[in-house]
Amino acid sequence: MEFELLAHLVDNPLRVHSRRQLMETVWGRPDTGDTRTIATHIARIRRKLGPGHREAIATVRQIGYKYDPRLTRVA
Q1: What domains sit in the chain, N to C, each tagged with a CATH number?
Q2: Residues 6+ apart with CB under 8 A from 62
Q3: 69 closest CA partner among 51, 50, 56
């Protein structure tokens, strides 16, 4: 599921995705009110991406997440 979530964000850069949209698009099921599922997967993806790339997945407070490749730091 992490790969599908990351792929969806990367395929739609700079677009803000609500948690509900991500549940419906990536998981194929309606949001049941448990937004921690999305937050947990985002945290795992960020850890795996490492310090130079984790900032590219930005949290948009009270809405959801977006992928912004301009936030990637090149060492």
Answers
A1: 2-71 (1.10.10.10)
A2: none
A3: 56
Torsion of CA 19, 36, 50, 70, to 10 degrees: 20
- Taking the C-alpha atoms of residue 62 and residue 3, their distance in angstroms, rounded to an integer, is 24
Task: Give pLDDT tens digits for 33-59.
Answer: 776 889 999 999 999 999 889 999 999
- Model pLDDT for residues 3-14, shown as the tens digit of each residue: 999 999 999 999
Give the pTM: 0.87
Residue 4 neighbours by CB under 8 Å, 6+ apart: 26
- Is the separation of the CB atoms in 38 and 22 below 8 Å? yes
